[in-house]
Structure formats: C-alpha cells, structure tokens
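Re: beginner question about structure tokens

> Can someone show what the tokenized structure looks like for a real chain? I only ever see the sequence side.

Sure, here's an example I had lying around. Input first:
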Amino acid sequence: MANANTVKYRIPFFTVGILFAFWGILGLIDQSNVPYIGYQEDGNNTVIRVYPGTPAASAGLKKGDYIRSIGGISVEDTSALLRRGRARIGETRSFLVERREQAGEAPVTKSVDITYANLPARSMALSDAEVLIGLCFVACGLTACLKAPARSATLLALAGICMGLVFFAGPHISSFFVRMLAGSIQILVVFLGFAFLLHYMLETPKPKRFLQWKHARKIIYAPAVLMVLFVVFQIVLEPRATSGLNQMNNILFGLFFVAYFGCAAAAMIHTYAKATPQERAAYGLNIALAGSLIGLLPVTIAALIGTVAPKLVLPGGDFYFLTLILIPISLTAGMLRQSRAL
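And the corresponding structure tokens:
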C-alpha cells in the first residue's frame, strides 16, 4: 500500500497525467487534418527515402534531392518557417531541390510541385500506436504513484507521465506564440522524463553507489536541462537553420537519446547482475530487465546509427518505437512486485 509521502503527490500527478492524455487524444482527433506528402530526410534537408505511391513520389521527388526551399521559403529561414501555417490538405507547394542526375555531375536546380494529401492508413495506424504507447506510459506512471512506495514510485510516475508526452503530437495551434509556448513546455517535460527514467533505474530496488556521489543528481539532470535551454534558445532567437546547425542538432539529440537510454539499460543490467536469484524474483527484476532491454535497445541502436550515419535507412525503422510500450508495462509490473517485497 502507498504511504503518506506518495499520497500527497497523487492529486497533482493525476491532474497533469489526465491533461497530457487529453492533449494526446486531441491530437489523435486532429489526424484527419494533418497533411502528408511521403518522404523522409536526414535532418539536414537531404531526401533519404521517398515512399512509393505518395504525393512526393508522384510529383517526382527523388532520393538524394537536397531541398533548398518549400513554398518559396528557404529551409534556412527559421523565422519564416516557424510562422508559416500548416499546409492544408489539397494545397500544392513548390519544393526547390538540388539534384545530381549522375554521380560526379554538378547539381541542377529543379522545382517539384507536391500536393498535400490526407494521412494514409499506414501513417494513421502508426499515429494511433504512438498515442496508445503514450497513454500506456501515463497510465503506468499513475499506477506506480497509486500503488507503490514513495521514492521509487515518484520517480517512475514522473518518468511515465513526462515520457508519455513524447508520443502526443497534440492538436494544431494557429497562434504562433501559443504554438511556441506549448512546444517549449513539451520539450522541457520530455527531456526531464529521460532524466527521471535514468534516476529511477539507479534508485530501484536499491540505490546504486553512484547516487552517493556529491554531484550525482546534477550529473543525471544537468544534460537534460542544458538540452532544454539549447532548444529554447533556438526557438526564441530563431537562428538560420544552416547545414552546420542542422548537423550539430542531429549529433546533440542523437547523443542525448543514446546516453540516457544506454545508461538506463546499463543500470538495469547492473541491478540484475548484482541481485541474487531470490531478489530477482522478489523484486520483479526478470520482467523489468526483459521489458527494458527489448524496449530500449531498438530505439537506442537506431538513434546511434542515425547520429553516425544519418543517410542510412534502417529496414523497418518506422516500427522500432513500438517496442517502447514494454518499458512502462515491465517497470510498473516490477515496481508492484517490489512494493510487496519491501
């Protein structure tokens, strides 16, 4: 049964969790208005994949095209891009691209007119899955808050609620100021969610020796806070999205995900290795380890590859995130078993 320290957090946790879930559901309802053209780029405006049968493929966009502008706005003009409204379904925008017809030739500039369409059934299904995973993170976080001991439960609840927001796109907001404000808050919450998850892995079922270090918690949370400040800095100052800035963003984000997910997985493996067979059963470490590794490894490996080889398209990469649903389920199951053992 939860103790008094946990009870005092229930109302704010449940309030925030319900608000986040509502935000995700609103985004799900808005899916019918989300425009789609059907290509993937490497984070630096180079097309690395064009999905067959999509508006991009029909218009002639090709793998390797470097996009210079969209609808007359340079891809480096951050200010104009942020303020431009979302494309309407049926709207046509001209993509100015640089293309090398053959290797070694100088690039030629081409204009590709692409008409935005509704999300296809495949993308709709993946969006539905994202919201389902987000709701699972929030629900499992609230379950931990409701049922388990204070310190570990609080960390798991914070991790679940915050990381649930990763999967919630939310509805489209017309106001530029409100859209940027909501985006900044979401970035803050999500990045802290990664730190809460790592802290939880280091805390349960018994605190790791690392937490006894004087600056241990600063080490856990400082990178997340710095990343938030870095992103908000870009939102506020709107620097031009040059190739150098894009590449730096790709590297920093990739390293952030790999570091937090990798350290969380390492902490869970360390916990399992140090525990006795009796402790593994009593603390639910078997299911927690299996769920954590299966949930974390695909996206961690994909993030690492995306950082060092951003132009590489991984087979089935669109589906790797689906394994993340195992993380809240397995950790919450282990937490509930742990709460009965302690």
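Each token stands for a local structural state, so reading them left to right follows the chain. The CA atoms of residues 28 and 127 lie 7 Å apart.
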